[in-house]
Specification:
- It contains 10 helices and 12 strands.
- With about 300 residues, it is an alpha+beta fold.
- Strands 3, 4, 5, 6, 7, 8, 9, 10, 11 and 12 form a 10-stranded mixed sheet that branches.
- A hairpin with a 2-residue loop joins strand 6 and strand 7.
- Helix 1 packs across helix 2 and helix 2 packs across helix 3.
- The two termini are about 25 Å apart.
Length: about 300
Amino acid sequence: MWAPSKECQVSFPFYGPSKLSFREAAEFVLREVGQPLRPKEIVRHACEAGILSTSGKTPDQTMKSKLSVDIRRYGSQSTFKRTAPGRFGLREWEAYETYHASPYARKHTETVLVVSQSDVADVVPDQGLTLDPRRIPELTWRSRPYDRSAAEDTESVRQLVTLAAVVVKGDILTFRRSGHNPESRLHHTWATLFGGHLQPKDPHPLFQPSPALFVTVLSQRELEEELRIADDCRLTPLGLIRDDSTRLGRQHLGFVSLLTSEYRIDIEQTSYSLDGQYQPVATVRETHRLDDWSSMVTQHLTEIYGARPR
């Protein structure tokens, strides 16, 4: 169950229509305000106007993702443009120049959470998929911030990532990773797992009543950026993946969940995820050459869905 968002208490000086999507709300707010804003400011104004409804813990990050995806997808045809780092405006505003990030900017300049290899061996002694989400809070307690670029150059620590497989009525959502994916070693591979790195700003287990809810809250930010989450979605924690067979596996530890719905969920962040399509869980490993972790999780899901009638 998605955690409820805080209700807005401040009234806004303009009248807003009924609830809108993030993109629609951004366009409405920018037109009313008449100047570029940061995603957090757009969300605040939209919330105060009563035109945006979100159950996410980080709606400003979701807004930033939605606008960034729109700009990447439609280019000069996008309604939006960047006018400065972290600031968005309407493309039709000729008074504001379009900001382009330097192509020489350092990649992956971000801080992620990692755990030492000794802690991994202590909490998750077995390789493969360990179906016990109760161990996830323990690993998060032991985690510490680390520069992502530095983490890619060492095997002394493992980067923590949240992952979720999407299953709708026995079909699993597959996709092909694009060449723009931050992890170059996974370019153009087929996968069934959505998610990303844990960051220091993510929730701490101290403030969550149960391991299951903690995993749900951890996964929410990345899933809302990558997928068009439906109201009936249910996220069920499965466990952890420890894989020592490759360097990529030895550098990461996955917190895995299952996202289910009665209605098909579309991919939102298409710059990283291409050719999204649903395939029967029972046969997807025969029709697609999945990456190791996706294959591992899908094999487990086949035991759950494979014998069920379609």
